[in-house]
């Protein structure tokens, strides 16, 4: 008598589906679904509350003028997320672990400190954003909204005990909510396609636009996401030879393109909505709270409610991802792991401090994104360095073209940051409007 097969959970079934694809026993569109997860999770970092803050200011102040920054940042994000996923698949190590294995210890400690600062800045933006959405939608004080956000995110993080698939599904559902909300916003606030296309030509209207441009880059190409993606792919599916690794890399690249294209379109929709609603008569709208209250008379309570729903989904999902990334960064660099509840508690503290002392929420969000942009070159340079080394990547070493493009992108971020620092210290930059 045949014994009944053991009941598999979602994670086990996904691994089995991936194995069938690698062995050629599954074909057609059904081959794509098992591979969707890592890029969807990391895509949350590209539509977090920091993006809401920078995109609303960009659209309100400059109309469609900074859309080109959103598109450029998204293309750079695609390149680096694809490289990060590839390193995890090929080496079986995440980026932080590779740094610990191959770099001098003093440099590793310095990189860990910088990356932890980035992780805390990330969590500040994400946690504040979700709490702010709850506070505005349900008319409750900010601090209780923060407590609710913390409880909800920790409850979802517990799903990690069941493997990677349940939490991928939850986060994917929240990303879908955000996408549907902004699809609805586009219908409620129609836009000019011709003007949007013209805005893809790079220009900086004035010096203040530079701060926003750097903030958009920091809010889009997130340091913790570069680390996280390599960890999400490193043990998701076992590859037995180079042929299977190539298949895994190919499917990963497809997922990165689709997930980040959707995230990029959502970011563009944020700027366009803010431009259409505020630029003509309310260009001084610079805060999420003001944007919400201004949307009500302009586009109706439905549009304002949809906006807050997307903000809450963004804050909760990105706070989950930020905690996961912070845990991976700590374990990768120094081999030290703390309980997830303690990690969640520690990274909540800066957000509570900001709220308690009365710092403007949107200002805190934007400055956190600028800080992220300043720390971004660390993982970018490390990723370019390791992916171009044949002794680490073998036959999967990055091509000269990929290495050159990634190096130019890293230099671009460094250049933007340098200009921002000079501007901050009052040093005049020739050719840049004041």
Put the structure in a nutshell.
With 434 residues, the chain is mostly helical.
List the helices and strands and how they pair.
Layout: H1 10-22, H2 38-43, H3 49-62, H4 67-91, H5 95-102, H6 105-138, H7 142-157, H8 164-188, H9 193-198, H10 207-220, H11 223-234, H12 242-279, H13 288-299, H14 301-334, H15 340-356, H16 361-375, H17 377-387, H18 390-393, H19 400-424
Helix pairs in contact: 3-10, 3-12, 3-16, 4-10, 4-11, 4-12, 4-17, 5-14, 6-7, 6-14, 6-15, 6-16, 7-14, 7-15, 8-12, 8-14, 10-16, 10-19, 11-14, 11-17, 13-14, 14-15, 17-19
Mean pLDDT: 81
Using only C-alpha atoms, the radius of gyration works out to 21 Å
Please identify, by name, the CATH architecture. Answer: Up-down Bundle
Give the percentage of residues in beta strands: under 5%
Class based on secondary structure composition and strand pairing: mainly alpha
**CATH level 4 superfamily:** Amino acid/polyamine transporter I
Instruction: Please mark out the parts with pLDDT under 50 across 5 or more consecutive residues, or reply none.
Output: 1-5
H/I helix tally: 19
Count of DSSP strands: 0
Shape: globular
Question: End-to-end span in angstroms?
Answer: 82 Å
Features of this protein?
434 residues, mainly alpha, Amino acid/polyamine transporter I, 19 helices, 76% helix, disordered N terminus
